[in-house]
Design brief:
Rossmann fold; AB_hydrolase_fold; alpha/beta; globular; hydrolase; hydrolase activity; about 325 residues; 2 domains
């Protein structure tokens, strides 16, 4: 990947925070999403946002499916940027929301997590069933790790569903990322930001399903390790945070991937230490590693202040298009 951060935006923290708040992430006409609700096999629902015209008019165009990051949505700056780039190429675009992230609390006694490849598998199978053209899939941060876990678990059979996949700034080693986000500036800023929305949602889930977990202890959670230990792990069949982080991490299984896969991580990402990133010998022949020195966590701003964030999605979509 070719990327050089602008001189006015130095360092991984600035390259993470500024683009998400201030850089331009939409272009041309307003993005017009059409929401569709899918009933899940376990009696719950997920909401899918389609871009622009009704899906039937997409014909055999490529469909780009984007999986968002932790507490993300179709309104996230990365989602908007990828939708803009997909529209400029004439691709169909869809953004499924993980449970509880579309603005409405889901119904079942579960939420979502970084290794949720079963949910990704169900979603992608439905997209493939609905769409006549080729399906390409990308995932941002948490969504990218879950997408790679899907590709790893499905091996050669993944090719029947998606032509190629890409993870963007994903914590492929969840233990290393968990330690990083729980320290120093990251703990003061990002951990607080995530817990500010995650804890209230979890407590609303407890109102739906009394006794699901210890609400008083969850109210006292001060980092993602404690939150995952009290909520994410037990709700999704893991023994503990350590068990969850170990079993959900995509890095140990990259060699199992049998479709073209791009793994993009900036080496100055505050959430994902460069020391934990995979090397080519970890990845196998189907995986391409892009590890630019700069970019932050899903930042990659370009141009004059306030900048824009289209460059990275353009390069990712160029790479995905080669699989067509």
């Amino acid at each position: 990947m070719q990327y050089q951060a602008p001189r006015w935006l130095p360092g991984g923290q600035a390259q993470t925070i500024w683009p998400s708040l201030f850089s331009r992430h939409t272009g041309g006409p307003k993005l017009d999403f059409r929401r569709e609700r899918w009933d899940t096999p376990d009696g719950d629902f997920v909401d899918v946002d389609w871009l622009d015209s009704p899906f039937e008019s997409a014909a055999e165009r490529p469909l780009l499916v984007l999986f968002h990051g932790l507490e993300g949505s179709s309104q996230s700056h990365s989602s908007q940027a990828f939708a803009t780039v997909a529209r400029s190429r004439g691709w169909a675009f869809a953004m499924p929301h993980f449970r509880g992230c579309s603005g409405e609390l889901n119904l079942a006694p579960r939420a979502y997590h970084s290794g949720d490849f079963e949910e990704v598998a169900w979603m992608l199978a439905r997209f493939k069933e609905m769409h006549d053209g080729p399906v390409l899939a990308a995932g941002v941060s948490l969504g990218g790790n879950a997408l790679l876990r899907w590709a790893e678990e499905h091996g050669q059979s993944a090719a029947a569903t998606a032509r190629a996949v890409c993870s963007i700034c994903s914590p492929l080693d969840l233990a290393a990322a968990g330690r990083a986000i729980g320290q120093g500036f990251n703990r003061l800023v990002y951990t607080r930001m995530f817990l500010r929305t995650m804890v209230p949602k979890a407590l609303r889930k407890l109102q739906q399903h009394p006794g699901l977990f210890d609400g008083e202890r969850l109210r006292g959670a001060r980092d993602l390790y404690e939150f995952d230990n009290l909520f994410t792990a037990p709700l999704h069949g893991f023994r503990s945070t350590e068990d969850y982080w170990a079993r959900a991490s995509a890095k140990p299984h990259l060699k199992r991937i049998r479709i073209p896969a791009l793994v993009l991580n900036a080496r100055n990402d505050p959430f994902v230490p460069a020391s934990c990133l995979p090397r080519q010998q970890d990845a196998g022949p189907y995986v391409t590693l892009w590890q630019p020195a700069q970019g932050g966590h899903v930042g990659f701003a370009e141009g004059r202040p306030p900048g824009h964030v289209f460059g990275m999605p353009e390069q990712v979509c160029d790479w995905l298009a080669r699989a067509l």
